[in-house]
Amino acid sequence: MFDAFRKTLRKFSDTVATVAGTGVTIREEHVDEALDELEMSLLQADVALDVVERLRDALKEKLVGTKVRNASEIKEAIRRALEELLDLPAPKIVPPPETPYIILFVGPNGVGKTTTIAKIAHMLSKMGYRSVVSASDTFRAGSIEQTEEWARRVGARVVKHDYGADPAAVAFDAVKSAKARGEEYVLIDTAGRQETNENLMEQLRKIKRVVKPHITVFVGEAITGNALLNQIRTFDEEVGVDAVILTKLDTDARGGSAFTVTVGAGKPILFVGLGEDPDDLKPFSPKELVEMILS
After folding, report:
1. What pTM value is reported for the model?
2. Are 246 and 254 in contact (CB under 8 A)?
3. Cα–Cα distance for residue pair 273/232, rounded to 1 Å
4. Is residue 95 part of a domain?
5. Closest CA to 190 of 274, 102, 277
6. Do 237 and 195 form a contact (C-beta atoms < 8 A)?
7. What is the spatial distance between Cα 171 and Cα 260, in angstroms, rounded to a whole number?
8. Are residues 138 and 221 part of one domain?
9. Which candidate, 186, 173, 184, 194, places its Cα nearest to that of 106?
10. Which of 30, 36, 63, 150 could form a disulfide with 118 if both were Cys (CB 3.0 to 4.6 A apart)?
11. 273: Cβ–Cβ under 8 A, 6 or more apart, which residues?
12. Does 205 share its domain with 154?
């Protein structure tokens, strides 16, 4: 995982070390050549041009003026710069600031929203909190049964209606039920949709109007590549996105997805999915991710 990105950043740090030397203050001309090579490598790794340009500018801003005594200090300066780019303020969902705390999950088809919701319910259960899952995907055949099966596995309760029902009505009933039972979290599953489907986007907007979720979380695949940026931006424009969960990060060989989210879309990453088991969801750590990339 991250092989391409790791090689690119190692080459970048080596180039800066070679050009700048040691015992100097890094100047703009020291990083320009290295940034040119970094830019080309990232574009070849399917990182969006907009993200590459912002990453380039941000690295230059953070590195120029840094005093270094040796090559290892150059690499440490790059490490710190990357961590800062990934470390955006994220909503705190634990403990719940209000009860019930309502989280709306949105995203394209097939990215693992239902599985991710089950993982979050499992995580919350281990911390002593109860969750009710709103089966608001009433569009896709088999979706309600899938939600019920995952909820059964992690010990969460499900509120559902029949297929074809109004997704906002399901969400409303889930919130009402959670309040009556004193459950701490309502996790709203929704139909996977392409960002160009206006009818399904309107359903999301209606859910937000009806239940007023505390946060809206976009769930996307780390392996999506260049398209991930457009997906997040479109969902943000249509319904508003507060944070992102990246699934399949364990299969992201190129390694640019996290920077696409934070640098390109300007959204914090809440969690990352690293497998299919209920425990395979981890809080996002910029420090750990940069360590994985650079190690």
Report:
1. 0.89
2. no
3. 17
4. no
5. 102
6. no
7. 31
8. yes
9. 194
10. 150
11. 112, 115, 116, 119, 245, 246, 247, 248, 249, 250, 280, 281
12. yes
Distance of alpha carbon 272 from alpha carbon 222, whole angstroms? 9
Q: Are strands 215-221 and 243-247 parallel, antiparallel or unpaired?
A: parallel
- Domain count of the chain? 2
**Tokens representing residue 245 in the block:** 């969960």
Output the tens digit of pLDDT for each of the chain's 295 residues.
566 666 777 777 777 777 766 677 888 887 887 788 778 877 776 677 888 888 888 888 888 888 877 777 777 877 888 888 899 999 999 999 889 999 999 999 889 999 999 999 999 999 999 999 999 999 888 899 999 999 999 999 999 999 999 999 999 999 999 999 999 999 999 988 665 567 888 999 999 999 999 999 999 998 887 788 889 999 999 999 999 999 988 776 566 788 889 988 999 999 999 888 899 999 999 998 888 777 6
Same domain as 151, residue 79: no
Looking at residue 221, which CATH number applies to its domain? 3.40.50.300
Query: Residues 220, 75: one domain?
Result: no
Same domain, 287 and 254: yes
CB 235 within 8 A of CB 106: yes
* Separation of alpha carbons 228 and 241, rounded Å: 14
